[in-house]
Amino acid sequence: MSSEHEQQRSRLPSEHTEQPSDEPWIDLELTLPHNRSPTGIVSFVECALVELTHEDVGAEFVSTSVAGVRRTQFIAVDDVGQRFKKRYFDKRLGWHETTVSRDAVREELVNRLTQRSSLGSDVGQHGVVDDQDKFKMVPVREL
User: Fold this and answer.
1) Does residue 59 surpass a pLDDT of 90?
2) pTM of the model
3) Where does this protein have compositionally biased stretches of type Basic and acidic residues (predicted)?
């Protein structure tokens, strides 16, 4: 029984054998706070970068703070995955767009996903679940 449990734990969510998914990136989603290790976060971000390079998807990080909701999106610009379009939305400033390197995307995602939620621990119990920071992969057409 324990070896079966270990096999299930070692599988990535996209490796389920019951129904193969045409969208292997669909399970690349993470809500903050989480209990992943720093090494686990690096692996998660590397998987996301591979999917950004090979699929027609973008990565979106949505954070909530006292200032409101902020969205940061990354979309591959070239076929080799070395350049990405970074789109940033802030209610006060609107949309801002720039081109960044793969290393910059990796560093920013690892930093954001290893931090605590931008809400902080002093927020009351009402609304916290709905306002958690979240990373997810999204088809480009939906960004």
Assistant:
1) yes
2) 0.72
3) 1-19
